[in-house]
Amino acid sequence: MIPVRLQRLVLLVLLVAAAALLTGCGVTKEVQGGRDWTTAVSRTDGTSFTVAVHDESGIVNDAQVDPPNVAVPNGVEAAQGKVNVILLRWVGGTCDTLTAIDIKEAAGGLAVKTAITKAPGPCDLMAVPHVLQLTLAKAIPPAAVALIP
What is the pTM of this model? Predict the structure, then answer.
């Protein structure tokens, strides 16, 4: 039989560990490891292309492409009235098949890299602006977000 003092000590250690774990999750609300969002974006001509967002920072809670009633920003901007939401602009084309967006933590902010895959063959070279709306686990000023071509 295990002595009562040892049982109490083990119980105390488990309670302290559980409290530390819960407190840590509640304070940061950051996800450890990568998260992914993939969506098909419709064009006005009825075709579509895919946007794949990969977040390695663990700070992004949600990613939306071209959300309704959101104007395309000039570069990176904070969403009006929302301290933890940023808007990022990228310019694609009419022949894009895939836009891959990778997000990493960098120097107290985020580094966002965009890679665009175009369909083979001839294409009208018309620029199409898009917006990526990121809901973050914590507020990050737009100046701390680097867009990497």
Answer: 0.75
